[in-house]
Amino acid sequence: PYNGMSADEIFQKRKSFLGPSLFHYYQKPLNIVEGKMQYLFDDSGRRYLDAFAGIVTVSCGHCHPDIVNAVVEQTKLLQHTTTIYLHHAIVEFAEALASKMPGNLKVVYFVNSGTEANELAMMMARLYSGNLSMIALRNAYHGGSAGTIGLTALNTWKYPLPQGEIHHVVNPDPYRGVFGSDAALYAKELQDHIDYGTPGKIAGFIAETIQGVGGAVELAPGYLKLVYDIVRKAGGVCIADEVQSGFGRTGSHYWGFETQGVIPDIVTMAKGIGNGLPLGAVVTTPEIAQVMAQKIQFNTFGGNPVCSAGGLAVLKVLDKEKRQIHCADVGSHLIERLRSLQKNHEIIGDVRGQGLMVGIELVTDREKKTPAKVETGVLFEKLKDLGVLVGKGGLHGNVFRIKPPMCFTKADADFLVDALDYAISGM
Ligand code: PMP
């Protein structure tokens, strides 16, 4: 399949034929032509350790054979019909996904992306509650459509368009947040916001349990429990965006929200659910789903046979290969090693995360927490030169995001930490 087109030619064609708003990583963007589990290969055959998984999307590993096989076999037999006919793949996948959910979260809607999932979730919240106001957290990313950029709260992504009736509350960020780790103070701020900034009744609240694009920011412990109570008392539904934090990545639990001991009313998923297939899902209760029955809800590609076969294979692989416990094991090793690296390098302001969803925030001054923007860029290039691909995040672009395919090993973690140590030491 790789036709030999050079990186320069691809880059030129990209500029000519794709939109000008595309961004790329690295001064000289990589031309990646092949992937195998936690590794990527460029057009010269050079291997890279992939610690970002196509933005937290390749959950099981690049081109995992079980998933490739499921997709190929289904493609050969029947690619597409839509839900106007019956097909076993969509119901098998829905049943398997529902079996992973706690409480009464049993009704599944399949869509094609995280943005679509959050659009649908917001629509359900408004229809079910009869209210309009949505609350999201500052520093959140929930999508790029006209509706979901309203939920997103990072100015880099927000086009100047009407953003709907959406409010952003202070982020319960233990490192940078105004109230530190004090969940009760953040929750009080949210209550105040409902009282003073909305009609008093709201449609819903949405949050990632660990903010992804925002830079692997964990929410203050206990925050969601307090906030879910407040939101429900104000007539709203609670939405957990598990697009990045789900499927065992946090290690201790299958879903990110479980790390905060809550059960949402609606859960949205994408990315890792398909290991690279365009696939998203919304899971909710039968009661909430009932409000959608007043009209027809339809999605041409949602739950198509190929993506459903692939998605089911993902769930099976994650179980068969015990990826959740693996994430806990490798993740704690990685975090431990990064924390000891932090002792030697002033520039590492914060190491945070759970399982294989880890953030390293770089600062030029630990007291003032001044974002080390330039230095992050230099180290980012250097890591790539050393053969390690990480993500970058946060409003100031000063956080490394380590969210590899879940087959990432302790030896891979060691290589990453050693490369980072070497890169910082040489700066
Ligand atoms: N929610 C979260 C937490 C995300 O990280 C993203 C994508 N970065 C989205 C939603 C939107 O997903 P998609 O790009 O598939 O529309």
UniProtKB/TrEMBL annotation:
Reaction it catalyzes: glyoxylate + L-alanine = glycine + pyruvate
Superkingdom of this protein's organism: Eukaryota
Keyword annotations: Aminotransferase, Mitochondrion, Pyridoxal phosphate, Transferase, Transit peptide
Record Pfam families: Aminotran_3
GO biological process, one term: L-alanine catabolic process, by transamination
EC nos: 2.6.1.44
Cofactor(s) essential for the protein: pyridoxal 5'-phosphate
Molecular function terms from GO: alanine-glyoxylate transaminase activity; pyridoxal phosphate binding
One Gene Ontology cellular component annotation held by this UniProt entry: mitochondrion
Subcellular location field: Mitochondrion
PROSITE patterns: AA_TRANSFER_CLASS_3
Oligomeric and partner information: Homotetramer.
Protein family according to the UniProt entry: Belongs to the class-III pyridoxal-phosphate-dependent aminotransferase family.
Name of the protein in question: alanine--glyoxylate transaminase
Species of the source: Acorus calamus (Sweet flag)
